[in-house]
Amino acid sequence: ATNKPIWSSGFLKRKDAKLEEASMIEKLDKGELSIKSKTPLFSDVADLWIKSSKSDYADSTWRVYAYDVEHFIKPIFGDKRIDRITTAHIVAYRTECEYTEEKAKALEKDPDLDLLNYKPETVNKIINILCNIFNFARDVLKVIGSSPMEGVSRVKVPEVKHITWDEDEITYYL
Question: Which segments of the chain are extended strands (E)?
Fold first, then answer.
């Protein structure tokens, strides 16, 4: 035995190389390690989409989208490479965002809780923006082969029943 590394540089045993690989993958997932790559971060693609889409929307809509990207989406996905975001990540985020009475009660008791509890319309707007960004990355920038948004469903919006007054009720209030 020459004690010469045989598994990449610095590892005498294959087992040690595998342990280091597992450690690196764990650090990547936690965001503690980054790899320089030609594939951009989500935040870079989102910024490009915001800049390029200004003429596609009314100014007020575009400002709302820019706000939503900055406040709802980039804090979650901004530091991740766009090609590493999966459908499972999107579905988990959508589920975390969905409104529930339990979360509403908990937030009422303690507003500082780290809970997301958005109305269905807000969640669906976030999903639409994510679709636009991933489609932009796939179709315009060509930095991903497919969109992780494929198959992601929208949140059901409860139907609001409107009550129409009859003539007697209108007369009563006039």
Answer: none
